[in-house]
C-alpha cells in the first residue's frame, strides 16, 4: 500500500478538492452520452464580459419507475445564499419540469434532508408530495460495498427473508400488503 497521511481538510484545501470534483463532473456530465444534465442560473454578463455570473444550478438525470414510467431524478437544486428568496430556485425547477415534460416524463423525484424544513416547506408549497408520509414509501439506497457483496454472491439466498404475508409484496403503487393477490416467493 502506498504511504500517505490522512488529515481533516481545511479551508485552504477547497481549490484542490474542487479540482478533483471537476474531473468527475467533466467525465460524467459533459460527454456524448452524459450521465446527468445540469441547468445553470446566471446573472446577465457585465459589459465587456461575455459570460454571465452563475448564481445557481439544478443537476438531474433521467430514470424509470415501473409505477409511472419515465422520470427525472433531481439530484441537487442550489442557489447562492444572497440570491435565495428571489425566484431563482423556482425558475430552475420550472426549467427542469419543462425538460421532464419534453421527454414525456411522468414525475420529478428528489430527496430533501429532514433538517432542511424551510426548503421542504417550499417544495410542498409548490405541490411536491412527501411519499414517506402519504404512501409510506421510504427512500432507500445501497452503497458500493453492498452492491459488490450482492453482485458477488451469485444470487444465492442470504439469511435475509421477507415474510410472504407482509413484506416483499409487489403490487400497485401504494397498495397495502393485504390488498395484493400474491406474495413474493422465491
UniProtKB/TrEMBL annotation:
Q: Which residues form the N-acetyltransferase domain?
A: 4-145
Could you tell me which residues belong to the region Disordered?
A: 155-186
* Entry keyword set: Acyltransferase, Transferase
Q: Which InterPro entries match?
A: Acyl_CoA_acyltransferase (IPR016181), Diverse_Substrate_AcTransf (IPR051016), GNAT_dom (IPR000182)
Determine if Transferase is one of this entry's keywords. Answer: yes
Does the record's keyword annotation contain Signal? Answer: no
Gene Ontology terms for molecular function: N-acetyltransferase activity
What's the short name of a Pfam family annotated to this entry?
A: Acetyltransf_1
Q: Which family does it belong to?
A: Belongs to the acetyltransferase family.
Name this polypeptide is given: N-acetyltransferase domain-containing protein
Q: What species is this protein from? A: Pelusios castaneus (West African mud turtle)
- Name the lineage: Eukaryota, Metazoa, Chordata, Craniata, Vertebrata
